[in-house]
């Protein structure tokens, strides 16, 4: 009839994690109870797409091999919000009218004004992520003319990066 909070204890038993909850002591014969449990389980990144709980009702008063036992399988769904932030340094670039492309030059300034594009990929959680692929399409040509000369590509934070085929073709 009333609602009570259960007293539960976690322990390891036979190599598995066991949560024991005391439902009532003493319990009257023929009593019916309903239990709603909320479990918080961490470290599920490598569990696959489901986790199975083995639930069993045991009585201290009358041990019996026929104690009710059920298996409950719950799907595991990872949730993580990814956020991409980008910036260009400088934010605005204007080529002087006197500037022109110097064919075959190895000097970076002969290929344009340096603009650095910085992108940050943030995991806002709550879950962790792995195997994320970020593809950036950089317009480096305008017709048959060079729009942006892609000089280098770098990463931080243990990421792998595959280089664009048009990256530094003149080896500046």
Which key phrases capture this entry?
single chain, 172 residues, mainly beta, rod-shaped, ITA2B protein, glycoprotein
Topology:
Layout: E1 7-13, E2 16-22, E3 50-56, E4 69-75, E5 80-89, E6 116-126, E7 141-142, E8 145-146
Antiparallel strand pairs: 1-2, 3-4, 5-6, 7-8
Using the alpha-carbon principal axes, give the shape: rod-shaped
How many angstroms does the end-to-end distance come to? Answer: 79 Å
Counting structural domains, the number is: 2
What structural category do the secondary elements indicate?
Answer: mainly beta
* Spatial order of the strands forming the largest sheet: 1-2
Q: How would a crystallographer describe the biggest sheet?
A: 2 strands, antiparallel
Assembly state of the chains shown: single chain
Structure description:
With 172 residues, the chain is mainly beta. It folds into 2 domains: 7-75, no CATH class; 78-171, no CATH class. Helix content is 0%, strand content 31%. It has strands spanning 7-13, 16-22, 50-56, 69-75, 80-89, 116-126, 141-142, 145-146.
Write a brief caption for the model.
The chain has strands spanning 7-13, 16-22, 50-56, 69-75, 80-89, 116-126, 141-142, 145-146.
């Amino acid at each position: 009839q009333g609602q009570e909070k259960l007293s539960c204890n976690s322990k390891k038993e036979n190599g598995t994690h066991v949560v024991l909850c005391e439902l009532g002591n003493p319990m009257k014969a023929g009593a019916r109870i309903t239990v709603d449990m909320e479990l918080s389980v961490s470290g599920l990144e490598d569990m696959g797409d489901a986790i199975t709980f083995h639930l069993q009702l045991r009585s201290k008063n009358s041990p019996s091999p026929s104690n009710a036992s059920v298996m409950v399988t719950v799907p595991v769904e990872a949730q993580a919000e990814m956020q991409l932030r980008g910036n260009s340094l400088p934010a605005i670039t204007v080529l002087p009218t006197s500037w022109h492309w110097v064919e075959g030059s190895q000097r970076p300034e002969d290929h344009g004004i340096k603009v650095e594009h910085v992108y940050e990929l943030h995991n806002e959680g709550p879950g962790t992520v792995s195997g994320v692929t970020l593809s950036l399409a950089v317009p480096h040509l305008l017709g048959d003319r060079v729009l942006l000369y892609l000089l280098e590509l770098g990463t931080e934070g243990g990421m792998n990066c595959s280089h664009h085929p048009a990256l530094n073709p003149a080896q500046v």
